[in-house]
Design a protein that fits this description.
This is Toxin-antitoxin system, antitoxin component, ribbon-helix-helix domain protein. Helix content is 56%, strand content 0%. The chain has 95 residues and is mainly alpha-helical. The chain has a domain of 42 residues.
């Protein structure tokens, strides 16, 4: 089913073309797969350890400011950044 006259960005066009080529297939036992990934996500984000960390006031204020801009608590931002770092997903921005 070709969809014409849609205003799609590059990523959306690639996805649509992939679907139209039949590259997508249904998963067997969909509910079991969904449950598996829900449990994986829950265990990944389970906060079961408390740490104390000493930081400069300047850095804490900068973190709090950035967290406000992102609309999240600053401790959540810190946890997210550290998680991305230890999993190798923190990407350095080239200036």
């Amino acid at each position: 089913m070709k969809m014409k006259n849609l205003k799609l960005d590059k990523e959306e066009k690639a996805l649509l073309e992939s679907v139209e080529k039949g590259e997508w297939v249904s998963i067997k036992n969909k509910n079991r797969e969904i449950s598996k990934y829900i449990e994986m996500a829950k265990s990944s984000f389970k906060k079961d350890r408390r740490i104390n960390l000493r930081m400069s006031s300047k850095d804490v204020i900068a973190l709090q400011t950035k967290a406000l801009e992102e609309g999240i608590p600053y401790q959540t931002l810190m946890s997210s950044v550290l998680h991305k770092f230890v999993t190798g997903r923190l990407i350095e921005k080239k200036i």
